[in-house]
Amino acid sequence: MDVFDKPLTVDQCKEIADKFCKDNDLELGIFEGKNIDGQKIDGYCFAAFNPDDEGKLVGYPLHIIVDHLSGVAIPVRF
What we know:
By secondary structure, this protein is α+β, with helices and mostly antiparallel strands.
C-alpha cells in the first residue's frame, strides 16, 4: 500500500481506485448517503483503510470512504 501525504484530484482518486480494483479483482462502487458530520454525500466509495499512528491514511485514499465494519461513510483527510 502507498501512503499519500498530499491532496489528490477527484480524477486521480478515481484512477487509483479503478486500477487497484482491477488489479485485485474488486468492484468499485458508488455510495450515496451522509457522512459522520451529517453532510449529504454522493461519491466513489471503497473499503476503508485505517490511519497509522501518525494519522496518515495508509492505502489508496478517496474523497469518501466507507467503513466496512460500521457501514458509515467517513470523510478522508489528505
